Amino acid sequence: MRKRRIEFLIAFILIIxxxxxLFTQLPxxxxxxxxxxxxxxxxxxxxxxxxxxxxxxxxxxWIYVLVFFPVFGYLFYLFSGQLYLKGYLFKSKRKRDRDEWxxxxxxxxxxxxxxxxxxxxxxxxxxxxxxxxxxSTESRAIILKNGEETFSEIKKGLMEAKSFIHMxxxxxxxxxxxxxxxxxxIEKAKNGVxxxxxxxxxxxxxxxxxxxxAMKNAGIQVQSFSPLKYGFFNQKINFRNHRKIIVIxxxxxxxxxxxxxxEYLGEDETIGFWRDTHMLVKGEAVYSLHTVFLLDWEYxxxxxxxxxxxxxxxxxxxxxxxxxxxVVASGPDTQQGLMSDFYFSMIASATKSIWIASPYFxxxxxxxxxxxxxxxxxxxxxxxxxxxxxxxxxxYASRSYFxxxxxxxxxxxxxxKGFLHQKIIIVxxxxxxxxxxxxxxxxxxxxxxxxxxxxxxxxxxxxxxHYEEDxxxxxxxxxxxxxxxGFIERSKESFARLFSGVL
Length: 503
What we know:
nine-stranded mixed beta sheet
């Protein structure tokens, strides 16, 4: 809060100084003093920027913006230039979450991973250090393909709830599907089931007020993540909760790429068929997923609910357990760039194949390098993206990265059946990631995300089979033809790439 006041004070001084110098008839001597004040204030801003220890390129870029675009440059910096900060905006949440994870889930020793292959062992060593969440060998993951299968399971699980339903979504619409789930939640709440319902303030801004009120009247607790109280000047506006989590009775959890809305069932005529992947989890992984939700809930509500659900008893038949499962939360409340580190480590551990499906493919430099090196070494690198994206910038920014990958032998496929929205990475057919995080800068640095990492589970075979099916509806991009694309297409790509840092 103190830092924000200082920033607004600097902005106020710059604006007033700029106005007095250019638009008033004050004596030159007074204007000279005001100019010195303006320059001193600008130097303080630049010095503060240098202390952030960004890359030299980013630091110089923002210095140019601050110097050559008076006032407007600083306002733009406040809004988007600080997106790479080390997280002071969520410092208290990050510290508290870290302490709670250590207290609730700290493991004295890792489970027996002798059944895993060598490459999985190397990745698991990284994962056990990078994230405080445990790697469980007492969990089960079930892949849910597309909206029809996913929402059928979700509604079934909700109707069977006996103790509590905890739900967190980025986008929740008040359409037919949304109202169907609302009615289940309201009925359950009236029957004594505890329902905690949380949505992102931006993603779900179009939720009907009457639906929210109906839930509250039924006894459902409703919270909005990071409300837009301060409009443009609230720096938190860019940090959104992109997580999709449902936990039912502490026994079943849902997580993946699907929000709640009829378009995710493929019923939006403009979008058409929607290709996505979700997951149902049971066992210890539910506890980790639940903890992610509870930490978010305590942050937005100010209440204390963690201790109420601090115990967990798995009721899974050990005969159905296989492999290992890890729930990993990332965002401003964790180590910066955590999900990017996980993706990079997965790619770097590959010896045979790397299969990626992502609707928004805007990789950072480390991941691009890892993919290029892997392809050059003869590892099969496949990247699947939608043929048509839902935004100009994401469409062409993604394409701007194709040439360097194609040049090194990576294969890129354009999914043509509909809109591809799943976020999947499969390495060597025995290590996989599925969740909410796209392969872009927004998911790596701005959004609160949650993924499930699978180590040698049988469900990876389902992901492999689904990926191969998706390839039948995809067209491989020819390097020769792509290099022949016109000047206009290249210009669009170059322009869109400028915005990669906030996509």
